[in-house]
Amino acid sequence: MPVADPPSPVAEVAGAPAPEASSSTPAGRQHGEPGLGSRIVISAQSESWLQVRDAYGTRLFEAVLKAGESYHVPNRPGLLATVGSAGAVELTIDGRPGPSLGRVGVVRRDVPLDPERLAAPPPATDAPRLVPPSPAAAPRGG
After folding, report:
1. pLDDT tens digits along 19-73
2. β-pairing verdict for 108-112 and 48-53
3. Pairing, β 30-32 against β 70-73
4. Residue 66: other Cβ atoms inside 10 A
5. Would residue 11 be called left, alpha or beta, if left means φ above 0 and alpha means ψ between -120 and 50 degrees?
6. CB atoms within 10 A of CB 41
């Protein structure tokens, strides 16, 4: 005989029944300022720590986002993010997919949360490398 899940503590406080959870989608909790003009949304695909600071270093948000949760970045200049697992999050800028921040497990610090900078194409990585001449090829003084 299956055992029923206990009611949600939030539902108990509010006096309303707990909402039905879909088995195909994660909880989808939204943090930050959803619906208030946020241009950047950081969505967790798997668990990742996220910290957002303003230009003065004041923490605006800090939490471990679980898969399906998202943070709506305030539309303010000078915000920076630190992400505990860059590949675990996806960015959306003005409703369009943003750039990857890196691989799963890679920590990214001081990511500027500026829509124009994030939407700009990354610099070319196929630029020629400058290789110093080998010591054997260096002219000898005499």
Report:
1. 333 333 345 888 887 777 899 999 999 999 999 999 999 999 999 999 999 999 9
2. unpaired
3. parallel
4. 14
5. alpha
6. 20
Q: What is the DSSP letter of 46?
A: S
Q: Where on the phi/psi map is residue 116: left (φ > 0), alpha (ψ -120 to 50), or beta?
A: alpha
What is the rounded (10 degree) CA torsion for 79, 84, 85, 86?
20
- Residues in Cβ contact with 28 at an 8 Å cutoff, skipping those fewer than 6 apart: 68, 69, 70
pTM of the model: 0.66
Across the beta sheet with 40-44, what order do the strands follow?
A: 30-32, 70-73, 40-44, 89-93, 96-97
pLDDT in tens, 61-72: 999 999 999 999
Positive or negative torsion for Cα 122, 32, 109, 28: negative
